[in-house]
Amino acid sequence: MTPAARTLYARVPSLACVAVSGDDAADFLRRQLTQNPPADESRFARAAWSDAKGRVRALFDVARSADRFLLVAERDGLESVLAKLRLFVLRSRVELAIDERLAVGALVGDAGFDAIGIDVGAEIGDARRAGELLTLRTGPTLVRLIGPVAALDAFGAAFEPASPEAIDLAEIRLGLPRVATLPERYIPQMLNLDRLDGVSFTKGCYPGQEVIARAHHLGSVKRRICRYVGADAGRAPEPDTPLVDEQGETIGEVVRSARDPEGGVELLAVVRVDAADGPLFLGAVGGARVERAPLPYEFE
User: Which residue of 44, 131, 190, 262 has the fewest CB atoms within a 10 Å radius of its CB?
Assistant: First the structure.
């Protein structure tokens, strides 16, 4: 296998795999998540699990693997999320458990992935099987890999290693949020999940659907994720760090961030749309200044 130029590999220990099995697994996920689970193994779905108020508790990439589903999720707080999710199983024939035999890796780079020697799919949302590995085409420059640790490490040995920050930056530039540190705070549209194909407005009922649908049909989403960059922002700000305007008014908060190779910082923040263009400062007026940067999708 010849690595593609500027294609890097890393394990992503902050993500884990949840196995959902049983005769009622597909129906259970359909009734709980904001997006339908994939009908076959050729696609994966991005979805949220929300509370009754429509606030996102967890985010999942949902893939099929043989006779079960795999949910790629943030490891932090995952046991607590699953404990709450199991309360909805009731009489359904469903089992949910973290599969510690599986790990998550990522390929990131500017080169075309068709040069890597495996078929990772032509479109975002495609899922492909490559031996023991399942590949999820997450973005134009990002592919997630699911498989046994030994298989992932053997595959990754053919590539230059990526830093954890490189993977975080790739996800930030795609506008992909994380919510483990800020659960039950945002409805899906605030996290731009409606622009990431993570919400269906035509499927059957799921927790929080009425709130989420009302915000969609009334166009009442006044806060959304935006991306920001700072050339001299010091260390990457922690989630929930305020963003303030020149008058010192808080207009949003950091959801996730990472350092870039030049020593700057990039971040995603949920902010008031009417004040998103800034100028904005981290923490307080006089703090590190950040400027709005583009995302690969648009919103009103």
Answer: 262
Is 159 within 8 Å of 105 (Cβ atoms)? no
Task: Give the SS3 label for residue 271.
Answer: strand
Place of tokens 């540190």: 181
pLDDT in tens, 207-234: 999 999 999 888 879 999 999 999 876 7
Count the Cβ atoms, other than its own, within 10 Å of residue 149: 13
- Is residue 98 within 8 A of residue 66, CB to CB? The reply is no
Query: What is the per-residue burial (b if ≥16 Cβ within 10 Å, else e) of 206-218?
Result: bbbbebbeebbee
d(C-alpha 279, C-alpha 300), whole Å? 20
For 15, residues 6+ apart whose C-beta sits below 8 A from its C-beta are: 72, 73, 74, 75, 104, 144
Tokens of 143: 């592919």
- Rounded CA-CA distance 154/262 in Å is 30
Distance (Å, rounded) from C-alpha 281 to C-alpha 162? Answer: 30
Q: What's the rounded Cα separation, in Å, for the pair 43 and 25?
A: 17
- Phi first, then psi, for residue 220 (nearest 5°) are -100, 25
pTM score of the predicted model: 0.93
Tell me if 78 sits within 8 A of 18, measured CB to CB: yes
Question: Given this model, what pLDDT does residue 124 score?
Answer: 86
3-state secondary structure of 183: coil
- Domains of the chain (ranges; CATH) run 7-173 (3.30.1360.120), 188-293 (2.40.30.160)
